[in-house]
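Dear colleagues,

For the upcoming journal club I promised to circulate an example of a predicted protein-ligand complex. I picked one with 2-oxoglutaric acid because it came up in last month's discussion. The inputs are reproduced below in full, followed by the predicted structure.
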Amino acid sequence: MLNQTSQWAGQYEEQGYFVVRNYFEKGELSLLRQTILKFHQGWKQANLTFYQEEAFNSSLITGSEFLKSEDRVKLFNFISSAKMMKVVHALIPKSPAFMNTQLFFNPVRPEQKDFWHRDCQYDHDLEGQKKAIKETQVVHLRVPLFDELGMELVPGTHKRWDNQEEHNVRQEEKGKLSCDDLSLGEKIPLAAGDLLVFSADMIHRGLYGMDRLAWDILVFDPSGDFVDYVDDDCLPNAEMLSQITDPSLFNNILRLKSLAQNSG
Ligand SMILES: O=C(O)CCC(=O)C(=O)O
């Protein structure tokens, strides 16, 4: 009988994702929801045109622009809680590093459709993407704050390249659109309290609808070169670090950043 962490690691290795149902208790989640909603209100006001016209996510939720230190510490403590670190260590046993967080919501315009992508396609051409899925490891930990339609994923694509249909849809070639259905897509409905863990580079899309507000925490394996992606402002300062029960995830990225600075 495999223990829970080996089961998670096995599913992730094979499929590129796994779900832990009812992982968070109501109390844990309602505190988190209050803090995230505070961020979301501030962010929407400051980005009104972008929000109304095209946005479907925000990032740098742990940064200083919309939340005070006290709230940021709450978020840092959630991210690095024993429950979250158990999952993170199951996939990245050695020195996992914090990257960022993103908040996903429904676009205001109903005609804006959910679309298939691999996260690495925004930084690399097709050859670079092939290399990225072979060599690097960025993990999304999705915490849905309300019940939602969830995500649609193509299992196994964290390790394999697109088939012809997937290529045409993702690249919008041969008359296909990135919002067209894919035959191998698997829909994963999520409820508040669940945790979905998936590879950033597998083919996926968020499913718009219901009152979704999903907080994604991104962590990476330090063998990948992602230090430049990490914004200093979304990391804890020394005073905040002293209030975080297990700061290792943040210390790891701070160490990588200072190594990069000293060598550059
Ligand atoms: O939920 C969404 O809208 C998209 C999610 C996504 O692409 C991601 O988490 O990388």
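Two points we might discuss: The first helix runs from residue 4 to 15. The chain has nine helices and nine strands.

See you all on Thursday,
B. R.
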